[in-house]
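Write out the 3D structure for:
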Amino acid sequence: MNHRAIVLNRLARLASILALACALSPVATAQDTSGDDSTVIYPSSYFDQWGPITAQEMLDRIPGQGSGGGRSGSFGGGGGNPSSGGRGLGSGSGGTDILIDGKRTAGKNNRTGGLLRRISADQVQEIQIIRGTSGELDVRGSNQVINVVLFEALASNSISWDATANVAQDEEFTPTGSVALSGQRGDFNYLLSLRSNPRYTHSATFESSVLGDISPNDTIREDRINDRDNNELSMNLGYDFSPNSSVRMNALYAAQDSPSVVDRITRDLRTTPNGLDIEKEDNLSDRDNWEIGGDYELTLSNGDRFKLLGIANQNNQDSTRQRFQLQNDGLFQKNLFLNIDRVTEERILRSSYTRDIFSEQNIEFGIERAETILDSRLALGLLNSTGTPSATVGGLVPQNVSNANSRVEEIRYEPFLIHNWTISPQMSLESTLVYEDSEISQTGDVTNKRDFDFIKPKLDLRYDLTPTLQLRGTIERLVNQLSFADFVAANDEQDNDRDTLAGNAGLRQQTQWRYSFSTEYRLPNDVGVLGAELFYADHKDVIDRIDVSPSDDNLQSANGNIGDGTEYGLDLTASVRMGMIGLPNLLVSPSFIVQDSQVTDPFLGIERRFQYHMRGQWRLSMRHDIPQWRFNWGLQNFDRVDGGLFRYDVDDIEFEVGDPRYNLFAEYVDSRGLTYRMDLQNISNNVRCRRRTRFVGRISDNILEEIENQCSNTGLDFSFRVSGTF
């Protein structure tokens, strides 16, 4: 039996097990918290027994939601980092979107999900889990929507705060904290937040290598310390001009200083006595970003809705890597200077109009315009006996790097049409048609201009077989946005033997037709949720590493399009209260995904998985509330199915494995409402290992040069947090 048949057989068995579990469950009846067949409502009184402080803590008590709840625990919001392929707002995250009073935040970096930790629980009237589709929703294309409904108040204020002490594995102490003011004055509501979140990490790496004849080569011990300082100020404002007209404004400014130091000792095992090479790196990375967003909504007398949304943001990043080598005189000499200066800007304007056309049917049509610009500058200096040193590269000799200085700009238009049809109280259909027209131009070291256009249809059919069992089928064409970082030369942070990575100005978008079928079964009496998703995708123009070598003596690779591929898998989730063993406040949420993919490798011509594509992952979260003690505790476990994480390059092959990771927390709320929380992150001290096989020339020549085995870990992180509201 071939590999694909084995995987399909396992998927079939897993699906059968889940179906049997559902069949053996008691006949479902409508929960007390149900609003209609596709919406589950949790009023604020539902959470009184646990005494939550924030809206996020309320959500954590709902089966299938909060952290660790499988697919539904992945909160969306649209967009992402524009330089890495997250441009525009998109038509839906495919995960879970969060709305506040039925509205999403007009922002990308300033997302709705982060607001839940800054909204006081006493401001929440109810939480709605919306599993159906509707033209009344402010988002499209999500598996489900969480709508947090707040109490209406003429005047109210709430201040939430937290202070945390973090201790890393080397006993380095780092304090963090935040404060947020939220409130309402008549038709005006606001949320202001100030957050300081420094992050200290210390990773230890050990590597040993052998030569092609399996004789010892060298060992490398590396300690890397990153001491990041991160401060963020954000605000969310809203004003209702009338019951039918409202406006919302959002703003964010963040500054990050992330210096790192590296100590590296290389022992040469090919000589007797062993040679010793000592290096250190002094690296700087400064970043600041801002975002401003706003949206206006008007509901006409006939029920039609008009929406206008605009977002502007900018991300500035300047990083410098400097490497020094210890000399015989005891002094360190600089031998590498690498600076990358990048500015990413994005401007988005989106308008839409929604109206009812027939009974239980409505359409939304509109257009989105997005402009994204990346300015990238790279400067490389090496220690060289020939050439003229320059202060611009740290006193070393400047090196010519292809595609080092470039400006990449995309202007994209997306007219869209969305049709929602409530076929019956149990069935709904959302049909989407999006036309994407874009122009990508690159100037500087490389000059290139290309036009693209795509038609992106989607059908999303949902059927509530019973009030608690929902079936969903989705067919859609996805177009993955290109990462601007792949267009230009960049620093290679994974390979010390290679200073830079080449860019590729000829990239095309990777597209796919994706087919999925999912089920969600809500157990009676709010016992829990079972879910399963079976998916298959046909990919075109898969992006992976390709050979862009200028000559056989100068091998280089870059991200490029390597051909067509397929992807398929099964994702199983559950979130169940353990009342059957007398612990109704113990919420256990396991999930397991098994998947595979196939594409033709451009270097060897073999069939293999997509780059770094996991074979599977096991996730488990557990939360146990003890209300009479005002105490709760829990754990999280993440573990991958090892054996699938490969990366093929022009002259080497990488393979990764990793140990399971365990996190543990305990939380106590005193009589004043102060919350004391202890977190132990990575208590298993999981080790991640990588095997890199290097070849002389291209890997297709099959001349083994070296095998490197590297393992690293960051150790245990401890934190203690005190938080409260007033």
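The helical segments are 3-24, 55-60.
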